[in-house]
């Protein structure tokens, strides 16, 4: 917890795939690809990485001239590099802006993020490819940010920083016999008393059962006797009526 920070100080694909940087297993295949990747930064890129900003989510129609016009408000620009497709020459939607002074870099980093250029809200951050140790680009399963639709969210960057981990205290559960010896003994004795009490009840039921059966059979015989006597009386009454009629 003392070393926790919302922004990653060193890139780890496994931690970047975790909302708080505490996951121990990758939850998507892209993290596996990033963990197995052996990425080397492009040596053909020139300029000072500590004075360079990464500008993403650009309109595909935005040009270098437009970027120079916007970012020159914050200080003197040394170079603007709009990344284009090698085959088609079309913009890929991100660029790098190198300043001459660190003060201009920090000001642009603070104020230019979420600025709207050509109807697009842009994202601005420091260049990480040459400054963050262990960096893996997005195309290899790394990077930061990402869309929920793709299912490859990455945390630890400016766009989606780490959330502070929640450390729950270790609470003892007495229900499962954890805790002091007295508590455990009390729970064991309680279970023994409960079992013995059930056994006594079962025995008492077994004793009462034959008595109940006798009472039930006795009740049935009495009823039968009463019904027989009533039938005899009705038969005798019927005979007397017949004799009178004769």
UniProtKB/TrEMBL annotation:
<protein>
    <recommendedName>
        <fullName>U11/U12 small nuclear ribonucleoprotein 35 kDa protein</fullName>
    </recommendedName>
</protein>
<dbReference type="GO" id="GO:0071011">
    <property type="term" value="C:precatalytic spliceosome"/>
</dbReference>
<dbReference type="GO" id="GO:0005689">
    <property type="term" value="C:U12-type spliceosomal complex"/>
</dbReference>
<keyword id="KW-0694">RNA-binding</keyword>
<feature type="region of interest" description="Disordered">
    <location>
        <begin position="147"/>
        <end position="166"/>
    </location>
</feature>
<dbReference type="InterPro" id="IPR035979">
    <property type="entry name" value="RBD_domain_sf"/>
</dbReference>
<feature type="compositionally biased region" description="Basic and acidic residues">
    <location>
        <begin position="147"/>
        <end position="162"/>
    </location>
</feature>
<dbReference type="Pfam" id="PF00076">
    <property type="entry name" value="RRM_1"/>
</dbReference>
<feature type="domain" description="RRM">
    <location>
        <begin position="51"/>
        <end position="129"/>
    </location>
</feature>
<dbReference type="InterPro" id="IPR000504">
    <property type="entry name" value="RRM_dom"/>
</dbReference>
<dbReference type="GO" id="GO:0003729">
    <property type="term" value="F:mRNA binding"/>
</dbReference>
<dbReference type="InterPro" id="IPR012677">
    <property type="entry name" value="Nucleotide-bd_a/b_plait_sf"/>
</dbReference>
<keyword id="KW-0539">Nucleus</keyword>
<dbReference type="GO" id="GO:0000398">
    <property type="term" value="P:mRNA splicing, via spliceosome"/>
</dbReference>
<dbReference type="InterPro" id="IPR034146">
    <property type="entry name" value="snRNP35_RRM"/>
</dbReference>
<feature type="region of interest" description="Disordered">
    <location>
        <begin position="187"/>
        <end position="246"/>
    </location>
</feature>
<dbReference type="GO" id="GO:0017069">
    <property type="term" value="F:snRNA binding"/>
</dbReference>
<dbReference type="InterPro" id="IPR051183">
    <property type="entry name" value="U1_U11-U12_snRNP_70-35kDa"/>
</dbReference>
């Amino acid at each position: 917890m003392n070393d926790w920070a919302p922004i990653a100080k060193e890139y780890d694909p496994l931690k970047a795939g975790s909302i708080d940087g505490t996951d121990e297993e990758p939850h998507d295949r892209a993290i596996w690809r990033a963990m197995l990747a052996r990425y080397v930064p492009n040596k053909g890129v020139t300029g000072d990485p500590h004075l360079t900003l990464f500008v993403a989510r650009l309109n595909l129609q935005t040009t270098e001239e437009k970027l120079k016009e916007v970012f020159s408000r914050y200080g003197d620009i040394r170079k603007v590099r709009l990344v284009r497709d090698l085959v088609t020459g079309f913009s890929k939607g991100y660029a790098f802006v190198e300043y001459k002074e660190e003060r201009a870099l920090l000001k642009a980093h603070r104020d230019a993020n979420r600025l709207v250029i050509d109807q697009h809200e842009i994202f601005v951050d420091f260049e990480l490819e040459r400054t963050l140790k262990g960096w893996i680009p997005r195309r290899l399963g790394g990077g930061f940010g990402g869309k929920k639709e793709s299912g490859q969210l990455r945390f630890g960057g400016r766009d989606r920083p780490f959330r502070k981990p929640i450390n729950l205290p270790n609470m003892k559960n007495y229900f499962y016999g954890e805790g002091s010896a007295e508590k455990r003994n009390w729970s064991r004795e309680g279970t023994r008393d409960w079992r013995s009490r059930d056994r006594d009840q079962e025995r008492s039921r077994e004793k009462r059962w034959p008595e109940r059966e006798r009472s039930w059979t006795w009740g049935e015989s009495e009823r039968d006797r009463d019904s027989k006597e009533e039938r005899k009386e009705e038969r005798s009454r019927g005979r007397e009526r017949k004799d009178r009629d004769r």
